[in-house]
Design goal:
GO molecular function, one term: D-amino-acid oxidase activity
CATH superfamily: D-Amino Acid Oxidase, subunit A, domain 2
Keywords: FAD, Flavoprotein, Oxidoreductase
Cofactor: FAD
Family: Belongs to the DAMOX/DASOX family.
Number of domains: 1
CATH class: Alpha Beta
Strand content: 25-35%
Largest sheet: 9 strands, mixed
Protein name: Nucleotide-binding domain-containing protein
Number of helices: 5
Number of strands: 15
Bound molecules: flavin-adenine dinucleotide
């Protein structure tokens, strides 16, 4: 006799909510996803509609390293399948303008140096190391088209019989109106959690503003350069063009495109991706602002139990992934 696994609600249909729902479905749970925004939609409050595998985990962040390692290994398997995932594994570079602990020992102390294939230190003179740069590495990294990837995750959930509701809830208990028999809810609301958690917790949440430009042509490589007061990146968006970035401004809610910043981003990216220039300029398709869902102390992955709608149910919080969704 097989035991039926409990029904679970996933609140949120970003990359975190959809992957959580798929994992639960594959484990045999029935799942209802409730969300305001869904794959195919673009909105500043829907961060996943904006992104490449680049670890954000530092040398002491063992949890972040585990997440990034598992994602990389999962995608290595996924990219081998002949499915429309929007995912590609391509050559990449990471360049530092000044010495950091990571650039010491030719990058050998970087925790992910043994994870990614073809990890190679770059020192001058090297055609991939721009003038003025201190040190770099080349390696294989993933770029993805988020809209294709989100649609892929949702279609996999649909194959497993997921139920969906489009709704903006004003409390976590509110989800049980749609799934009265559910044992609990996984809270994957990104920055939306600010409105749903207690005030002390909400104080820890803030946006880290990003601004990007989608341009024509697919860059040969993914490239990232870190300098004094700036971060510059070129990330192929398979089937759609290339994303140029960027910025990281903590606590900035501004959703308007800053044209001056766009000019600075494009000037820096001209050195990184000259193959995309037409008569010396990029062909702009669109510009966008995104909010990384940041949290002081790192992501919250924690279970609590509460009486909700007359029953003891669990809330599994799963938000605050900032720039490493
Ligand atoms: C410019 C930029 C570049 C980035 N680059 C990278 C990168 O290179 N690599 C990387 O790993 N990450 C990157 N990120 C970060 C990554 O995009 C995020 O960490 C990730 O998308 C967060 O996903 P999420 O599912 O937690 O949140 P979201 O995608 O914001 O999803 C939240 C979901 O919850 C729903 N929701 C919220 N509140 C409610 C409510 N009250 N009722 C109903 N539904 C609700 C929303 O509608 C949505 O469906 C980048 C982000 C930005 C902005």
């Amino acid at each position: 006799m097989t035991t039926k696994k409990p029904e679970i609600v996933v609140l949120g249909a970003g990359v975190i909510g959809l992957q959580t729902a798929l994992t639960l479905l594959e484990a045999g749970h029935s799942v209802t996803i409730i969300a305001k925004f869904w794959p195919g939609e673009e909105h500043v409050e829907y961060t996943s509609s904006k992104y490449h595998w680049r670890t954000h985990a530092g040398p002491d962040d063992l949890q972040g390293q585990r997440f990034d390692r598992e994602t990389y290994e999962h995608w290595l398997e996924l990219v081998k399948k002949d499915e429309d995932t929007g995912l590609v594994l391509i050559p990449s570079t990471y360049i530092w303008d000044s010495p950091t602990p990571e650039t010491a020992n030719s990058g050998a102390s970087i925790w992910w140096s043994t994870l990614v294939p073809t990890f190679t230190p770059l020192t001058h003179p090297h055609p991939l190391l721009p003038e003025g740069a201190h040190f770099g590495i080349s390696y294989q990294s993933f770029c993805l088209n988020p809209q294709t990837y989100l649609a892929y995750l949702l279609s996999r959930c649909t194959d497993h019989g997921v139920k969906t509701h489009t709704y903006e809830v004003d409390s976590l208990a509110g989800v049980f109106e749609y799934a009265p028999g559910a044992a609990g809810v996984v809270n994957c609301t990104g920055l939306g959690a600010i409105e749903l958690v207690d005030p002390v917790e909400a104080e820890k949440l803030f946006p880290t503003r990003g601004q990007t430009i989608l341009v024509s042509g697919e860059a040969e490589m993914a490239r990232l350069r870190v300098g004094e007061g700036y971060i510059s990146y070129v990330i192929r968006r398979p089937g759609a063009g290339t994303i140029l970035g960027g910025c990281k401004v903590e606590g900035d809610w501004n959703e308007e495109v800053d044209e001056e910043l766009s000019k600075e981003i494009m000037e820096r990216c001209k050195i990184l991706a000259p193959e995309l220039l037409v008569n010396g300029e990029f062909e702009i398709i669109s510009q966008q602002v995104g909010r990384r869902p940041s949290r002081r102390g790192g992501p919250r992955i924690e279970v609590e139990w509460k009486e909700m709608e007359g029953q003891q149910r669990f809330i599994c919080h799963h938000y605050g992934h900032s720039g490493a969704g």
